[in-house]
Design a protein that fits this description.
Chains A, B, C, D: InterPro entries: L-rhamnose_isomerase, Rhamnose_iso-rel, Rhamnose_isomerase, Xyl_isomerase-like_sf. Four copies of one chain form a homotetramer. Chain A is α/β, with parallel strands linked by helices. The first copy, chain A, has helices spanning 9-17, 46-60, 78-87, 115-135, 156-172, 199-209, 228-237, 263-275, 298-317, 321-329, 333-345, 349-358, 365-372, 374-381, and strands at 21-23, 65-69, 91-96, 139-143, 147-148, 179-183, 193-194, 213-218, 241-246, 286-289. In chain A, 44% of the residues lie in helices and 11% in strands. In chain A, strands 1-2-3-4-6-8-9-10 form an eight-stranded parallel β-sheet. In chain A, helix 1 crosses helix 12 (349-358), helix 2 (46-60) crosses helix 9 and helix 8 crosses helix 9. Chains in contact: A-B, A-C, A-D, B-C, B-D, C-D.
Chain lengths: 392, 392, 392, 392
């Protein structure tokens, strides 16, 4: 059994180096179609969101980047926003476009039958690319919410063809150091077809675009029962896994804290990452969170999420690869499984505590943040104004 | 093959007598957590909603009742609202309580650990019972949105016990001619546990309460693959099917137009109703719609829904029951299926057109309404104010 | 409303020309892991299976080809088998390989860690290619049952790499007029990973192989809720839909009669075929059945299946494409849906009866076959010997 | 953090006392409808199966009972079989009836339209009750495989009524110390309706029967996404949880090793057992395994399964109940979850090793058994004859 005492130096190094990108919107209010509950202290603008992001990084040492969402994070001066982030020790990460909150997009955006609306949606991405240039971001992240609710409502193939054209225009606007990351989703906000419902469709479009396009895998965007680690392994094999959107689910796109619903699944995913050498930065996989803290406090929710990813990663790193390979090759089904489970069943929290201590961090970031008084402070200070949410 | 020419008189009578209750909220705006699209002409208050309900009834002749939702349909004078409805030819149907839009209910309502919040939720039902008395409604419809998002968040059994107590208090407040209809739902707005997730739980509580309690079956509230007509047959057998909430789904609680996603399923459901003699009024099954017209116009959406239920019912009514029973008893698997499919494959639209014509209605209510100019009229008239939605 | 009286000549021609390929194994016994029920008259060898296939073609006029499965349809003399088929008016269609019934394949076939076992599995396909040459078949159909039951049991990516190599060897053995059709499946017979679990994986391998490789879509091989017609449209768009395996399902790979579980889905699938011009022979889509008649008689089950596909096709053919396109372009959600539903709700059985009568066939093939006495005849004649099943 | 050093004595006692019942059929061959792979050394009769059961008990000290399946475990002299078991240190547990392997049951057993076939199925249970008397078993376990494959095939309600009658007859034949345990299943071997598809239906029949009837919860018999621990809590609350059939699944009724697919789910289930005081013997919950070791060796598979249940139980036992309750009552969502996860994340293997050592057992039963040479021994000895499987 690997323990904190016996973990190899490269395990500690990998854990110390691991970074997770946070979504600015996780710090604002979110909810279901039934209700968005509010919480005292929630940020009212992108500057306050980034201040909260910086808290997560301060206590975990593992969250140095924040994804922005345009127009939710629209500001007059993006250089100022990037400088504000930099002052607080974090950087701007991926820029997320928004194709679901304009009345024009009721029946589609990049796939809309009307070329004028497609143009509007394409132009929005050019605006996002400008934000990338202003903030130093290199990843343009596109989740296409387009779809239909009723059979016959629109032509499935026609929408694919229009999508391909729209993506070509966006792709053509990228700088050479930019990437276009294309996310898929099984359903919601539309309930009959989605125009990018699965990794296959996302891949088909990425292959048509070129090397700067890659797939985003949101762990909550699959059909029930889908083996996600298989998709991870396949996309890494093809060199086309651009980023994760981490969260967890029991039913649909529940957007719960990553690792909360099925920690063993998260471990299996990270195991594919580790065994296929995709944890290191040059593999080009951006590990992001994308969650909704509907009923729990947001900053502690993000800290717990980062810790959950770290624990899954630590378990993946201590898998005895040689023993595993031997058992696999010899056809020892239970033996191979046992090697994997031995790592999973190990309590890696002491190991992570040590890695944190070596970096001068609190051993338990969740407890340390909760003891800091920051939540009380923002609840007291952030009075008045409009709390940020999915609309801003 | 049964056709409009050969349909038995009792089939025509049953179709002519069938009624479907409409939800007031289907005429307001709805959407997903991502966006609520607005539409010109949407009602701004319960009186305008009822005016739109009356249009559906005017053209279909089959929608004489409207469900209210409290507090969305809060008015100062419910007698006036009931009189307004009556003037327009419709009546107030079930009164729906709302347990999901108070900040107090973030962690539960009737199941909340805090007795003060449970009391608030119970009192809300007493308020609804007052509305029932004022409007002549006899059905109190309770959908419990309570649940949890994370394992350990609350005690599953403790919540059941508190729920049982809260329901007892509500039940005790009913008048003798009132019913308490209890709906179940698989998930949403919570994503780990729901406190009434399935028909079994709903039934357990109804049995504990007594004869005035019955189950509401919402066709969109089941796990993937669930055989809904089995549940219909079982609840009818137990005398505990109080009402339907009709809608359709491909993925989750999509709330699409009933019959749109799987018309064969709707037929199979109505077949169990017909074969178990639960279509007639004395069976006590209230056939209601509960849908969201997120992207389509609302009144035509409701008209189409009523027509879909009528078509499924007509097909169920023309099943050759004797031939079916013979094939079933003789173990003729394909033959029995063929009898059912013969009815399903029949085009019953001519038959329904005749039944409508006999009642002095347009043969195609959808076309007739669209030709009436009503949508243009309300778009022109209903300017200013706040469009109704799930919040009002 | 389109009726038999108004259907355009090209609709009748398309229906008259449509062919559906039957699987030889549907005429043998099948069942679940719990029990294989037997039926009097079931064929005992490939010659008797083909005799039964010919009955389906005799009464439907639409089933002129039979898929063989090797080794279940192993015979000494394939020319003789092909001649026997030809004498009865049918031809040999696709040759299906079998990778799931050798003890050697317990842990994989084309993906097995042991190169000797991979070679055995590859060689089996070369044997199948010889059968193709002997019978005039041009389609080699490969369903890969390989997978794992436990996390860690084998290396996911390693298996993909080995699969790619194995497929290359098989592909290299094809004649220029041959196709390699690669099927995917969500789960079963393995329950953790499948090595080709989805259309994306199948496509990735087809793209790596070349123009002679295409995807097989089995309608029962998807995750719950998957929108199958989207995949159909996408694969047709990419020129990579090689064949269907038609059947229907409510839960898993139930292999029920096509159109029995969800006739509207079958219509939507055929609608994508028709609207994307993939019904005509030069589109290269082979429409096959793949079903298990566990409890119903097999020949009538196949006849019903052919009729179900024909009815869905007829409905797809009578969709008013111009009206549909107009409604789609104008954003008339309900109007577009109504155009589609108008076709679906039409009773096309009279039209198909006419098309059959024009070909000199009985108007109702199911009734005509049942009246023929053939089932009694084979029950009387086929006494002794071993009934064919999945093992032979 | 609770560790082996700090675990309370009552935790150790509960772990030392826990027993898990093994199914005789897990030691025979099993498979899918595609293939049953064989393994050297597999038992050829019930006596050899019990010898293998005894091995699991010898190394785990926690598996003192074996469930029999009639007729698979049919012997001439059940007293001799019970004595054989007793000699090897184990006892006969539940008697399982078999309603799925007679040709007569093709269209149903206890629900069959033909009273003669229902009588045959009822009589089979009387035979099982005789086996109970001969072996000292007190639990009659009934899994009803009955169902239909096609809509219309039979009358859903009629089948419920016939089922209720058949169950009454079986129940009337029980001795006063007997229980009738009724299992439900979502689907398979039928694919349209199952006659007992869910816990609600099982409960309805148990309530109609009386106090000697209780529900069996098989962890693999639910719709995708079903929250199983909720059902556990509800059935315990109602005093109607009679037994578990433990196994794990990713897709359907996969019958994998319990805890293999989702160890966190198993922990949550055991957490409901522990927190609702249902672990102790007087609660009347029989914890049984029901699995298929299709590709892995059977005895090690059973040992691993017992260990997985023990680990989940240990984690449930060390939950800090007071801290949990406080967090729950105070509405501390993340805090309550953290209390639960602290137990789950603890490595309880050292604690279990100590508990075993205190009982004089090997600390790692899996390793100890594998080192024993028993598998080689039975492979050498059990040559010739017919290996046991689901047919015998």
């Amino acid at each position: 059994m690997t323990t904190s005492a016996t973990a190899a130096p490269q395990v500690r190094e990998a854990l110390a180096a691991q970074t997770i990108e946070l979504p600015s919107w996780a710090f604002g209010n979110s909810g279901t179609r039934f209700k968005v509950f509010s919480t005292p202290g929630v940020p009212r603008d992108p500057f306050e969101k980034i201040a909260d992001v910086a808290q997560v990084h301060r206590y975990t040492g593992a969250a140095p980047r924040v994804s922005l969402h345009i127009p939710w994070d629209l500001v007059d001066d993006y250089e100022a926003l990037a400088a504000h982030a930099s002052d607080l020790g974090v950087q701007i990460g991926a820029i997320n476009s928004n194709l679901f909150q304009e009345d024009d997009y009721k029946l589609g955006s990049l796939t809309h039958p009307d070329p004028a609306i497609r143009k509007k949606a394409i132009d929005h991405h050019k605006q996002c690319i400008d934000v990338m240039r202003a903030t130093g971001s290199t990843d343009l992240k596109l989740w296409l919410p387009d779809g239909t609710n009723y059979a016959g409502q629109d032509d499935i193939r026609g929408r694919q063809d229009r999508l391909a054209e729209s993506l070509q225009e966006i792709y053509a606007a990228l700088d050479p150091n930019h990437r276009l990351l294309i996310e898929y989703k099984f359903f919601e906000p539309y309930f009959y077809t989605m125009d990018i419902p699965d990794w296959g469709t996302s891949l088909v479009h990425c292959l048509a675009l070129g090397d700067q396009a890659a797939v985003v895998l949101d762990t909550g965007h699959h059909a029930p029962g889908t083996n996600i680690e298989f998709i991870v392994a396949q996309l890494v094999r093809l060199g086309k896994l651009g980023a994760f959107d981490f969260n967890s689910r029991n039913y649909a796109d529940d957007d719960l804290i990553v690792g909360a619903a099925d920690p063993f699944q998260l471990f299996r995913i990270m195991n594919e990452i580790v065994t296929n050498d995709a944890l290191k930065e040059e593999a080009g996989v951006n590990f992001m969170l994308d969650q909704c803290h509907n009923i729990e406090p947001k900053i502690p929710g993000q800290i717990r999420s980062v810790m959950n990813v770290q624990e899954a990663t630590a378990k993946a790193l201590i898998v005895d690869r040689e023993a595993l390979r031997e058992a696999q090759i010899s056809g020892d089904v239970l033996g191979a499984n046992a090697v994997l489970m031995d790592a999973y069943n190990t309590d890696v929290r002491p190991l992570l505590a040590e890695v944190r201590a070596e970096k001068g961090l609190a051993e338990d970031p969740y407890a340390a943040f909760n003891a800091s008084g920051y939540l009380d402070q923002i609840a007291a200070e952030r009075v008045g104004g409009q709390q940020a949410g999915w609309g801003a």
